Automatic annotation (TrEMBL):
Keyword terms of this UniProt record: TPR repeat
Swiss-Prot/TrEMBL GO biological process terms: cell division
Record organism: candidate division WOR-3 bacterium
Keyword DNA repair: no
Protein name (Swiss-Prot/TrEMBL): Tetratricopeptide repeat protein
Record field: transmembrane: none
UniProt keyword Flavoprotein present: no
Mapped TPR repeat ranges: 52-85, 223-256, 257-290
SUPFAM superfamilies cross-referenced by the UniProt entry: TPR-like
Pfam families the record matches: TPR_1, TPR_15, TPR_8
Length: 299
């Protein structure tokens, strides 16, 4: 209640004190009143041109408005006033990544890491940057360093999992899944992703089934999880059971090309070639450039 009354006082403030104006601007920003936030932050800057925090919040507003050039200009101004805030450097790098300034990002990250080698935000952005390049292995150590200081961040663990999976480093990915589930034992997405990763490779299928069963216990009508279970049964050679799960998945998700393709694969195994091709064609409607599907339709 005390905090609420303080917020009310700030929101009703009409004076010219730049710190109060900045705080009011921040509160309005948090309440998604971007116009009101901008008005107060610009007033704060007018009365105190060296208020780096106001420039930082202005950068965040323009990011929300998808005006990345303006956002970048404001964060650069914040850095010019106070160059010793790693969060400002992180935000600048983040905006540069969005603007796809790849060469500039590389040098910015390099210089930032020289100054703040242990900063979790900068290491995360370095990891994310390299994860988008051909040199994905470089990303791993940056993610690990970031997670050392932010070990309960499931999203970062998931991003590291995606890198390991893309490099076919399955055991490493599995260790990360264990971390995610330890953070949140009801993370259905983690159980499903882990199980599907194993099923795709045709390994540890019994474990894959148990993992996806767990996901379905949490979200029984999730079409993606139903598809995953169907795919496990397909890999086990139990095509009728696979067909049932995939049919149910299609009742929930009728625009996912992967599920249509999976259903076609099952029908093909059951000898129903014509219907299988019908489902491959349905998949192609949503993924018309898929070479594998084009090949299956033409066979």
């Amino acid at each position: 209640k005390k905090a609420d009354s303080i917020c009310d006082i700030l929101l009703s403030y009409k004076g010219t004190d730049p710190e109060y104006l900045r705080l009011k601007g921040y509160l309005l920003y948090e309440n998604n009143d971007l116009t009101g936030a901008m008005k107060n932050l610009l007033l704060s800057i007018e009365f105190n041109p060296d208020d780096d925090l106001s420039y930082y919040y202005m950068a965040r507003i323009y990011y929300k408005l998808s005006q990345y050039d303006k956002a970048l200009n404001y964060i650069k101004k914040a850095i010019s006033i106070n160059p010793n805030v790693p969060e400002y450097l992180s935000y600048k790098i983040f905006l540069m990544i969005i603007k796809k300034e790849r060469k500039e990002v590389f040098y910015e990250i390099k210089n930032a890491l020289k100054r703040y080698s242990d900063d979790p935000g900068i290491n995360y952005l370095a990891g994310f940057f390299f994860s988008q390049t051909k040199d994905k292995k470089k990303a791993i150590n940056f993610y690990k360093k970031s997670l050392k200081y932010d070990s309960l961040n499931s999203n970062k663990w998931f991003e590291l999992i995606m890198i390991y999976e893309s490099l076919n480093m399955v055991e490493n990915a599995e260790k990360c899944f264990e971390k995610v589930i330890k953070i949140d034992s009801l993370n259905a997405s983690a159980y499903n992703y882990w199980g599907y990763m194993l099923a795709e490779r045709g390994i540890k299928l019994e474990l894959a089934m148990k993992l996806i069963e767990k996901a379905l216990q949490i979200e029984p009508n999730n079409g993606y999880y139903l598809d995953s279970m169907g795919w496990v049964y397909y890999k086990m050679g139990e095509y009728e059971k696979a067909k049932d799960y995939l049919y149910n998945a299609l009742q929930v998700l009728d625009s996912d090309p992967v599920i249509f393709e999976h259903y076609g694969d099952v029908l093909m195994k059951l000898g129903d070639v014509n219907r299988a091709k019908e489902f491959y064609k349905k998949a192609l409607k949503f993924d018309p450039k898929n070479k594998n599907l084009l090949k299956k339709v033409g066979e």
